[in-house]
Design a protein that fits this description.
seven-stranded mixed β-sheet; globular; alpha/beta; Aldehyde Dehydrogenase, Chain A, domain 1; binds 7-thionicotinamide-adenine-dinucleotide phosphate; about 40% helix; 2 domains
Length: about 500
């Protein structure tokens, strides 16, 4: 069983939260509204190599669980180094024979077709994403899958316009790209990787995360039905070893990795001295900064969106909250009240705000870090929501009394846990926000445009949101500073890693 933090016993509930509960009672209890559209989950999913679904050479499969019930959802093929080799050979052949030869406009047509088919199957893909990964259906239906289609549409448009993207230069594809993605936005990360690579004329071998491979295999079906030439996209599922086999394969020209900083560093060391190019999208410890002149209700809602929706399973989650001292009591009160009203439960219910934690291992990591926060002297506040008896869950939580040296202020929690700190001046806010080894994103909440510009220029983060948080668009580049990685995905900058210009 996952470890439940000892600290749960220390949970505090603010007196006004009690009053709210008394006043509204069951007003917060919505009737269940589960998604009922039937979807087909296969008993097992094979590898997708050379345009065909093929069995893994080892004959082995591993279970993929629904984290909301901890029950087996399906079985996924365990790809080995041999399978990776077959996929790379298929991708190389497709690169040489078809994909690098056809007119760029034709490549664009395939991508447009994929985008439209994703839209047609959006409901099915959303439900599968939620069942396999535990994220609320509201998130997968309204954010992930529309963005997946939008990425394919956007890069489809670039396929025959690369000369305009880099005027006066001659952009050429790199060759075969190996792409390794994490479990928090399974299909969206696949789209971020596949769409620009294919638009630029590369062929691909993709390795999805072990716990969330289902939607990638449904995307493989779409790619096949769209008539994409065999071998242009290959998907090899499996654990970290499979990813390592892909990274190490001599037939790969470029590696694009999204995942933890630890694995990213390991990959960077492995590729040092080789001719393979590399882009890394790694962890984060974003600060959301609330200035005293900010619209506080909107700011608190933005903070809630930034850390609790999607269970904090977001690399750019606003897991640190910096509040100007003069408004700290007000913000704290609003935050305490708001986490009481978050609905945690069935991810397939459209009223759910916070779904299931992706895996038992991840729940254990969150619990361990929360325990460390309590042991180091921070104060834990948790929602009093009831958690389902089966599956993997964590209550929306935040720490006050956090210092910069606490692990909860430094390490990526990747769960619905916020660390709240205060500051007095904008300069102090910037120092605190930048006091991290990461630099993926940040948020500023203020009424003054001049403060936004001044602070944004001083924050060392790849993405900075002002008076909003966690907003994505295929036209905007995304990526990190420092240990959050290098290279950009999205926008015209997202073409660069897949081209020799
Ligand atoms: P990782 O453990 O790093 O896993 C990421 C991917 O790499 C998975 O497919 C994993 O396979 C594979 N992998 C593991 N060891 C490998 C190795 N030695 N060589 C090659 N591939 C290997 O991260 P995670 O726990 O899945 O994801 C959470 C992390 O991703 C967080 O730190 C988060 O911040 C980061 N993330 C960053 C971004 C951006 S855009 N910066 C976006 C999403 C997530 P298995 O799944 O089978 O272990």
């Amino acid at each position: 069983m996952p470890r439940i933090p000892k600290s749960t016993a220390l949970t505090k509930r603010a007196p006004h939260a009690e009053a709210l509960a008394l006043q509204f009672g069951d007003a917060w209890a919505y009737a269940p509204a589960p998604e009922t559209t039937p979807v087909t989950v296969k008993d097992r999913y094979d590898l997708f190599i050379g345009g065909k679904f093929v069995k893994p050479s080892s004959g082995k499969y591993f279970p993929s669980l629904n984290p909301a019930s901890a029950k087996k959802l399906t079985e996924i093929a365990r790809g080995s180094a041999r399978d990776v080799d077959k996929a790379v050979v298929a991708a190389r052949a497709a690169y040489a024979k078809t994909w690098s030869k056809i007119h760029p406009r034709e490549r664009g047509k395939y991508l447009f077709r994929i985008a439209r088919m994703i839209q047609e199957r959006a409901r099915e893909l959303s439900i599968l994403e939620t069942m396999d990964g535990g994220k609320p259906i509201r998130e997968s239906r309204d954010i992930d899958i529309p963005l997946v289609a939008a990425h394919f549409f956007y890069y489809a448009g670039w396929a025959d316009k690369l000369d305009y993207a880099f005027p006066g230069k001659t952009p050429n594809p790199i060759g075969v790209a190996g792409q390794v993605i994490p479990w928090n936005f399974p299909l969206l990360m696949a789209a971020w990787k596949l769409a620009p690579a294919l638009a630029c004329g590369n062929t691909v071998v993709l390795k999805p995360a072990e716990t969330t491979s289902v939607t990638a295999m449904h995307l493989a079906e779409i790619i096949r039905e769209a008539g994409v030439p065999d071998g242009v996209v290959n998907i090899v599922t499996g654990p970290g070893d499979t990813g390592a086999a892909l990274v190490n394969h001599p037939g790969i020209d470029k590696i694009a990795f999204t995942g933890s900083t630890e694995v990213g560093k390991h990959i960077a060391k492995t590729l040092a001295g080789t001719s393979k190019t590399l882009t890394l999208e790694l962890g984060g410890k974003a600060a959301n900064i609330i200035m005293e002149d900010a619209p506080l209700d909107q700011a608190v809602e933005g903070v809630i969106n930034g850390i609790y929706f999607n269970q904090g399973h977001v690399c750019c989650a606003g897991s640190r909250l910096l509040v100007q001292e003069s408004v700290y009591p007000k913000v704290l009160r609003k935050l305490t009240d708001r986490i009481e009203t978050l609905r945690v439960g069935d991810p397939l219910d459209k009223n759910t705000d916070v779904g299931a934690i992706n895996s038992k291992e991840q729940l254990g990591r969150i619990a361990e870090l929360v325990d460390s926060g309590v042991a180091e002297g921070a104060d834990l506040v948790q929602s009093n929501c009831r958690l389902p008896s089966k599956g993997y869950w964590f209550k929306p939580s935040f720490f006050t009394g956090v210092t910069a040296s606490h692990r909860v202020a430094r390490e990526e929690i990747f769960g619905p846990v916020l660390s709240v700190m205060t500051f007095r001046t904008p300069a102090e806010a910037i120092d605190r926000a930048n006091n991290t080894c990461y630099g993926l994103s940040a948020g500023i909440w203020t009424d003054k445009g001049s403060k936004i510009f001044k602070m944004a220029g001083a924050l060392r983060a790849g993405v900075i949101w002002a008076n909003t948080f966690n907003k994505f668009d295929p036209t905007s580049p995304f990526g990190g500073y420092k240990e959050s990685g290098f290279g950009r995905e999205g926008g015209v900058q997202g073409l660069m890693p897949y081209l020799r210009v």
